[in-house]
Amino acid sequence: MKLKRDLLIGHIREREERALLAKVLDRVEIVLTNHRPMLTNFHDPYHTGLIISVLERLTDIEFATEGGFPIAERVRTAIFPDYMTLEEVDFEMALLSIAGNFKMNKVSHRDFLGAILGLGIKREMIGDLLVTGEGCQVLVANDVASYLRANLTKVQRVGVEVSQLEMDKLVLPEKTVKEIRSTVASLRLDAIAAAGFSTSRSRIAREILAEKLSLNWQTCSNVSAGIKEGDMISMRGRGRVEVAEVKGNTRSGRISILLRRYL
């Protein structure tokens, strides 16, 4: 069955986004023709939102997302015939443990991800990485699980052992959340990010122009990008800041905000 793609994604101007949605529609056509479920790869919340916005306009299918745990950011989207139930769908993901002696070597999310990608595995095959004191747990597509177990031997200079765990062995690390109450002159990216990351507006502007910040999981190089309640700002190596509440103007005309910084 051929879909009317121009009507569904003709308005998408970004080449990469259009290519992603075209692949999703390829999968939808397979579902409708062969009457079997299909999966996307792992995607961040922004791209998952794009996918869902297209799938919501289609009939004769159902869809669901799964990332291995309820608050996962990176998820796979399953597309299946509307007469099937979700219990019949396999999201084809595995939970791997990357363990090593990291007491003398401080490693980060970036170190683990870099070691995995260094093996030639694409980011879209990897879900969330959960760093613990003993190493890392990572959700991956089944297609790359065996390869990772056999080939990932080091993270930084530390030797590691990779094993597969049952999904109920997943351990969610406690996130440190710091609430920040501040006032800003305007709801611009540079102003909000400077308040959230406790740095000067001029410095944060340089970081934005260097494309080190993301707004709602999209790299943003526009210092004056508008910010609204609910937005998420990420800074490479510094964590994330959620715009929890925009409270209104103070007597001096500044805008009162509540931010949550995830460390």
Automatic annotation (TrEMBL):
Family matches, as InterPro entries: Nucleotide-bd_a/b_plait_sf, PSII_S4, RqcP2_RBD, S4_RNA-bd
RNA-binding S4 domain sequence ranges: 187-249
Signal peptide range in chain numbering: none
KW Membrane (keyword) present: no
Protein's UniProt keywords contain RNA-binding: yes
Record-level Gene Ontology MF annotations: RNA binding
Matches recorded under PROSITE patterns: S4
Sorted UniProt keywords: RNA-binding
Domain of life: Bacteria
Protein name per the record: Photosystem II S4 domain protein
Gene source species: Desulforamulus aquiferis
Lineage, uppermost ranks: Bacteria, Bacillati, Bacillota, Clostridia, Eubacteriales
